[in-house]
Amino acid sequence: MMGRLTQELSLRGLVLLGLLFAALLAAPFLINDYLLTILIIILYFAYVGQAWNIMMGFAGQLSLGHALYVGLGAYTTAALYVHYGVSPWIGILVAVPVAMICGAIIGFLAFRFSVAGVYFAILTIAFAEFARVGFDHFSWVGGSSGFFLPVANYTQNDLWNLRGKPIMFYYLILALTVLAFVICRSLLRSRIGYFWLAIREDEEAARSLGINAFRYKMYAVVLSAGLTSLAGVFFAFYYNNLFPEQVFHISRSIELILAPIIGGVGTLFGPILGAFLLTGLSETMHSILYSLGVDIPGAKQVFYGICLLLVVMLLPDGVWPWLYRRLGLSGDKP
């Protein structure tokens, strides 16, 4: 498995990858609580970006409503925990299938009736908006007033119930990010990955070669939805509060896909690099403005817009493919 994961990286690439992983493992013991929080946010966006990348980067299906799956994962496990005391690890067995079924419904409606391109993106937005309005009136999970998980000052980490200190959540999201990377890497170099790339590049040509485009696009949507719902579980138990306007809103969906777009859609390291760049630079800008006593509403969104504009104009393939070539990590594809 490890051989397949690293076979296209040069020695320099392997060393850099090893150093990055070692630094991430040791980070909680070397940095303060504020920087640890930033790293958790970075890894969260890296994980979600990797999950979205399966659908858009590999299979070429643009989703602008991925917040739907985050919300379903978050609300399902949080409700089971608060109302019935069910561990989130058990709740995952319900949350992930719920998100996958929802993704399958969207995919079936879109692909069966040839809804593609921008119309497919609008369909995903519509489902996320339906969910937002529905949860706004769903009093069992708090409705628009919000749904809150019990919070206490834990002296020990309770991994079974995901109650504890930030360091526990850090290693949890790090493990999820590594898991998503390994899954994506394995899929991309498998038969299904090659079929996805063929569909992404030219669906009609792929069909003419005998590839069942409907089936493989469904695989991408369902898998991406299931992985994204795990991010929702993490979100619920880390932040301890859920609001439909906060979780399902389209701005949240846009925020989730920025990291892979900045880093490089369709690449394995793009979502990770994009998350580091976007969140790191955004927090640096916020700290500078705060130290100057300047408070500009919407500054973060303006910053994201500028980053997106620069990448589209200067590096349309994303930062990672450019960096990959500049560092000489391999002569092969990223």
Description of the structure:
The mean pLDDT is 88. This protein is globular. The protein has a two-stranded antiparallel sheet with strand order 1-2. Helix content is 72%, strand content 1%. The longest helix is centred in the C-terminal third of the chain and has 27 residues, at 213-239. The chain has helices at 2-6, 11-26, 33-58, 67-84, 88-112, 118-136, 166-188, 191-201, 203-208, 213-239, 244-247, 250-263, 270-291, 299-314, 319-327; strands spanning 147-148, 241-242. With 334 residues, the chain is mainly α. α3 (33-58) runs antiparallel to α10 (213-239), α4 packs antiparallel against α5 and α7 (166-188) runs antiparallel to α10 (213-239).
Could you outline the blueprint of secondary structure elements for this entry?
Layout: H1 2-6, H2 11-26, H3 33-58, H4 67-84, H5 88-112, H6 118-136, E1 147-148, H7 166-188, H8 191-201, H9 203-208, H10 213-239, E2 241-242, H11 244-247, H12 250-263, H13 270-291, H14 299-314, H15 319-327
Antiparallel strand pairs: 1-2
Helix pairs in contact: 3-7, 3-10, 3-12, 3-13, 4-5, 4-10, 5-10, 7-10, 8-10, 12-13, 13-14
